[in-house]
Amino acid sequence: MWASILVASFGTYIEKLIGYMLPHRMLERESIRRMTGLLPISLLAALVAVQTFALNQTLVIDARVFGLGVAVVALMLRAPFLVVIIVAATSTAIVRWLGWLP
Amino acid sequence: MAGKRSGRQTAADTRSIDRNALGIGIATGAYALSFGAISVASGLSVLQTQTLSLFMFTGASQFAFVGVVGAGGGAVIAIVTALLLGARNSLYALSMGPVLSSKKKAIPLTALLTIDESTAMALRYNESKKASRRAFFATGISVYVFWNIGTAFGSLGASALSDPGVLGLDAAIPAGFLALLWPRLTGGSTSENRKMWALAITSAAVAISLIPFLRPGLPVLFSALVAVAASVLWGKKSRPIERN
Question: Which residues of chain B neighbour A35 with C-beta distances below 8 Å?
Answer without folding.
Answer: 227-228, 231
